[in-house]
Amino acid sequence: MNKRKIYLCFVLFICNAHLYAQKKLNPDSTVVTKHQTSINGQAMGYTAMMGTQPVWDEAGKAIASVSYTYYERDGIKDRSQRPLVISFNGGPGTPSVWMQIAYTGPALINIDDEGYPLQPYGTSSNPYSILDIADIVYINPVNTGYSRILEKETDKSQFFGTNADIKYLADWINTFVTRINRWPSPKYLIGESYGTTRVSGLALALQSTQWMYLNGVILVSPTDLGITRDGPVGMALSLPYYAATAWYHKALPTDLQQKDLLDILPEVEKFTVDQYLPALTWGGSLSVEKRQTIAKQIAHYTGLSEKTILQQNLSISTNFFWKELLRDRGFTLGRLDSRYLGRDKKDAGERPDYNAELTSWLHSFTPAINHYMRNVLNYKTDTKYYMFGPVHPWDRSNDHTGENLQLAMAQNPYLKVMLQSGYYDGACDYFNAKYNFWQMDSGGKFQDRFSIKGYRSGHMMYLRKEDLKQANDDLREFIQNSLPKQGQPAKYE
């Protein structure tokens, strides 16, 4: 072998070694950067701390690394009274990218006012961020974002399941809060989609296993939280969402279409509980006359034909609705946000070929977060950023997270809960979210500690600029109202 070949082999060896070093994620790392922004017209500085923190087994061995980004407003001398917001997204296999760069964080993704992708991709300052009143940490559970299991032989079941996820993250949060010296601070959990399952369970786990008590939990587009809705209940609860979507696409009869959305929904909700649910309960024993009466009213509220509804035995699945409503116009509807339109290869069929909204979101978020992490937060790694990570099979058994949240509220008189839902979300719809509250508090003892906010958008309601501003204002109000007055004890009177 000549000298040139030896030299080239040496260079290749060095390059591969460098690449391996970068891809082998450091399980305990920190990169700190300084930034300036303006929120609600107020100029301020903030510090971003991006890094990784280990998950340890019972023997103290690091078995996984969880990546995070922590934002702290500068110039605060005493953080004991400054809220700390702990933020999760869902999936369950997605990182905190969505709320981090599109909702509550100081950076805002480049999209149009309704949430559609724009080029050039990237971020700018978020003038509506809640960083003015609270510090925020965005956490990426194992196998999302840059978070990873460290060794192949590690038992994955200790991460990938409803209760396993809650258990290790409660321990992780304890360590993180200790490291940044925030035990005295008022604390809040916010979760979106499956993240609502996560934070509902964490509310109790943090109290019972870490002795960490919260002031608030925010549920953004919540899942069922382990609250069963089998049979007629599950079939009926989607009707108000169908009405909202049909109204948005101008598919309702004139008498409804000329009304405002918020004037229609209470009427549809009442019909759903008082007439539609009982009709589905009667099933095949329902008289022909009653069946036709119910079908006519469902058609009135959904924009679908009476014939179609009767053919479906009064029960319209979400997949069928997404395919059927605009079939004659050649469009399908988005699952997580029904404002988004898709085009299928064939107009025929029972369900859309793809999720129109999700492809749009990945289009804009993926380049933005990769650029933001490396060039703004200065976090250099060749580790792939998982927008959707390998977390399956996911063990969903023994999901009692809704009950756990209610118990956490009962044990902690300070704890309040707020729901935020978009009316056009067909995966985690707003009326199912209301149903959660009704069933969690079936005795009506905690109604004064629940609040519900609705928005004219979908699953990620903050992608619509008008709702981005309003939703952050709602968060500010919730946080400020859930801080106890000076000297107010946590007790029942």
UniProtKB/TrEMBL annotation:
GO BP annotations, alphabetical order: proteolysis
Superkingdom per UniProt: Bacteria
Protease listed as a keyword: yes
A single MF term (Gene Ontology): serine-type carboxypeptidase activity
UniProt entry keywords in alphabetical sequence: Carboxypeptidase, Hydrolase, Protease, Signal
InterPro entries referenced in this protein's UniProt entry, alphabetically: AB_hydrolase_fold (IPR029058), Peptidase_S10 (IPR001563)
One Pfam family in the UniProt entry: Peptidase_S10
Signal peptide limits: 1-23
Protein's name according to its UniProt entry: Carboxypeptidase C (Cathepsin A)
